[in-house]
């Protein structure tokens, strides 16, 4: 119960205090929440599975563009609730994560990291040339559409939407660590050879972990797209991947909420 007390108090403060803050602070909190989810998703890979990715910006960017294309469809009349738009980022992140993870996890150590970096750089190079998908150098823009009486026109409304998604995803990631597969993930980090001796398919397990991490990263990217209503190919840049690596290690990759501390610190200092 004591371990849950601090997160509950923090959540209560995040719910109660923002309406009394200025727009700049509300926007800062939105960015902190998005960075925190990105870091938590990344930490599933490095902190629990022991897989260091230098290219997680790929799934962050893909999640953002998937959300924007869905938002454009909603603008054109497609009946889809705005609060569920991050599901597009989750779906794209999961699918691309499965494909990329299959090839990346064939290697380990520094070779794995280099493959993930190469995948992200591939998207970064192709995005300016793929006008229909990524909008070229100008990127893609859309607008948040009203839903059920909520217009999503204010920063505060976007903040509460972001908070809801981040809390749900954080709970899902924490619950994952309590499952048998979550324990297997830790075993892959500690002794992959023993996992193989026990009869588990280590490669398939790593692919699944990679895909789950990419899925939640896609949600973070989608939330950024909803907040900014625009995205361009710079989301695939190597500095985006490097930033989440630094945030995770500064906050502490061995503690579940450690990356949140690093993400909050880096994001606040960047304003």
The biggest beta sheet is recorded as: 2 strands, antiparallel
Q: Tell me, briefly, the overall form.
A: globular
Q: So how many helices?
A: 12
Using DSSP, what is the number of strands? Answer: 2
Detailed description of the structure:
The chain is mainly alpha-helical and 271 residues long. It is globular, with a radius of gyration of 18 Å. The protein is built from twelve helices and two strands, in the order H-H-H-H-H-H-E-H-H-H-H-E-H-H. The mean pLDDT is 92.
Could you outline the blueprint of secondary structure elements for this entry?
Blueprint: H1 2-16, H2 23-48, H3 57-75, H4 86-104, H5 110-126, H6 131-134, E1 140-141, H7 155-177, H8 180-190, H9 192-197, H10 202-228, E2 230-231, H11 238-251, H12 258-270
Helix pairs in contact: 2-7, 2-10, 2-11, 2-12, 3-4, 3-10, 4-5, 4-10, 7-10, 11-12
